């Protein structure tokens, strides 16, 4: 089942390391009022993962931004701008738990000795 797109939130890919949320906001604000800007961080490096999300108040503003910024250059990198898909909630009907063919649960006694054992099952691909 295909997930609906969020017509006022844009995915912005191809971000250079120097681009932060302020810069991303400044690049997209000419197209309309922005509700939110996020650049998810990599947990290991604490740097953004070369993509972000820009949420506009109006759908028309998001459409204009996508039309104008997809393929545009920012800090020497070409941007990919598309409508964002809703976040998938892990363990919910829409998330990976609803796809049993891709995952299976195994109890800890099935793992090799390199993994730690606990009383709850692990999820493995």
UniProtKB/TrEMBL annotation:
GO terms for molecular function: RNA binding. Residues 8-86 form the RRM domain. Pfam families: RRM_1 (PF00076). Keywords: RNA-binding. CDD domains: RRM_PPIE. The keyword Translocase does not apply. This is RRM domain-containing protein. The lineage of its organism: Eukaryota, Viridiplantae, Streptophyta, Embryophyta, Tracheophyta.
């Amino acid at each position: 089942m295909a997930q609906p797109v969020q017509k006022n939130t844009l995915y912005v890919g191809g971000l250079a390391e120097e681009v932060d949320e302020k810069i991303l906001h400044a690049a997209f604000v000419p197209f309309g009022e922005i509700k939110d800007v996020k650049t998810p961080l990599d947990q290991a490096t604490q740097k953004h993962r070369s993509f972000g999300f820009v949420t506009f108040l109006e759908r028309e503003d998001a459409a204009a931004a996508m039309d104008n910024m997809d393929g545009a250059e920012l800090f020497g990198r070409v941007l990919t701008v598309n409508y964002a898909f809703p976040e998938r909630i892990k363990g919910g009907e829409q998330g990976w738990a609803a796809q049993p063919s891709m995952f299976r649960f195994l109890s800890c006694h099935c793992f090799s000795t390199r993994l730690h054992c606990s009383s709850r099952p692990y999820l493995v691909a």
